Every structure is written in C-alpha cells, then in structure tokens.
Amino acid sequence: GGSDMAPFSDAETRAAIRAAQRDLDANARAEARRARRRRMCTPRYLICKVLIPLSMVIVAVWAMVYFLTGRSIVPGIDPDDLPPFFTDNWGDWGEETGYEGGEGDFGPFQKWTDPPATTDNTGLELTVINALTDEWFTYFSTAVTDWQGGDPRPLELDVRVASSAESECDHIRGVMVACNGNYGRTGWTGLNEVLFERNRIVSSVARMNEFYLRNSDSEERQYTMCHELGHGFGLPHRDETVGNADLGSCLDYTSRPGNNQGPDDVDYANLVGLYGSVPPGRTRRHARHAEVTEVTKLTT
Ligand SMILES: [Zn+2]
C-alpha cells in the first residue's frame, strides 16, 4: 500500500519556504541590531561619536557666551586658566603683601614708597633688573623704552641686567625684578607680585609664566611684559573683559594682544598723576636708595 498522506502541493511548499526565509531574515535583523548595540557601547564609539561632538558643542556655547559677556557660565572653571586668554591676579592681595588699602573696580592705583624709590613728584625713578632668559630681552627692552615714553614723561628707569637668569627672582627692596620660568598651571600668564609697607610699594617682582607662554607668539609676549611692568609701577587694569573693544593699552585684557602692545596716553597720564613728570632735560640720576648689596647678591 502507498502512503495515505497527500503530497504537498507546489503552492504549499513555496509558502513554507517563504515563511522559513522570513524567520531567517528576522533573526538576521535582530542579530544586526544586537551587534550595533554592542558596537555603540564600546569606549571608542562613545568617545568618537558622543563625547567629542558633545564637548565641541559645550565649548562652542561657552566660548560664545564668554566672548559676548566676558563671563564664564561654567562655575568653577575659570576661562582665564585656558590659553590664549591672558590673566593675572593683580589686586588679589593677601596679607603677606602688607597691603591694607581699598579696592577699586580693577584694583586701586598703588604708589612706590619714597625712599627707596624716588618719587618727589618729579617722576618715578626706579631700578629695574632684567633677570630674564635671553629670548625675553627684546620684549623687556621694548617695554622699558615704551614705559619711559609719554609727554610729559613720568618714568626714569635705571635698567640693570642680572649676570644670569633667575626664574625664582627674589624681592629686592626699592627695585623691580623681571624674570621668567615655568611656574606651572597657576592660572596666571604673567604676575607682578608687589610688597607694601604702610600701603606703599617697597618691591616688585614681574614673572612671565612659560607654562602658558612657551608656545605663544611675540605679540603675546610683548603684551605680557608691558602689562606686568605696568603693574609694577602701581597701575591697575584698564579693563578686564577679554572680548570687548581693545583700548590700545597693554593694561587692557584682550584676546588680540597685537592691539595692546604698549602703554597709551591714559597710562602715562595715570603715572603722571601718581608721580608727577620728569623735568625736561633732566640728566639721569641713579636710584639713590636701591640696596646695591642685594642687587649684587642676585647677580652672583
Ligand atoms: Zn594684570
């Protein structure tokens, strides 16, 4: 006897094959989805496709707000820590400086004591020591020359060069010392540390921080040098917003240091207000009260 089962028709066979094919396709798609999910969870995928684009968006928004308002919208992150924005801490004086005076918008004007500097309202005579490394010499001499400009002229600087660079330049009574070094991630590009007695400046140290400046161009270096020497004469900032119009003064915070390379007439006038002006035709007097023994110690 033969089988009593009826053979499948061709149509039924094709339907069964199609159903099996659909199952296979569905399984393959599900497997592909699982594989994609596994790929998306790899660190490489998260970093490349999620973290980096997200960071770029955040930085772009922050930069826009910062340039429009000059304020950081991210609490705890000081935008000035990040190059290329210049910053320093002028006016944030702790007790160790001896200063007990008030605070202006950008810190009040300060003034050298007399003696050891000579400030008898005929300009400020001050000894400035170059304890920088060679690559800073041109910026230093340009800044010193610029600061001795103005009409009338407020400053008479007695410049000396240390016999070797001193990144840890020490305070010397009656003297301003300029030096450079890698001081680390301090949050300041340049710094002028002043010491006070009875709220008058008795010494000043201007430091250029290579941590932020080692890759910077000549414009930023010139700006920083001019800026920190300017503080050393007692001048506060002219403006502390980075993104606004540049004043043409190196005491104006800027992201375009080429616009603010030297002092401007207002800076000279401010110094004349503090110290008077050097009488025309006066021959250079030496800063009589500088402690030469200390200078000698620095240069050995
Ligand atoms: Zn400053």
TrEMBL record:
InterPro entries attached to this UniProt entry: MetalloPept_cat_dom_sf
A GO term, aspect molecular function: metallopeptidase activity
Species in which this protein is naturally found: Pseudictyota dubia
The protein's name in its UniProt record: Peptidase M10 metallopeptidase domain-containing protein
Transmembrane residue ranges: 46-68
Keywords: Membrane, Transmembrane, Transmembrane helix
UniProt keyword annotation of Transcription regulation present: no
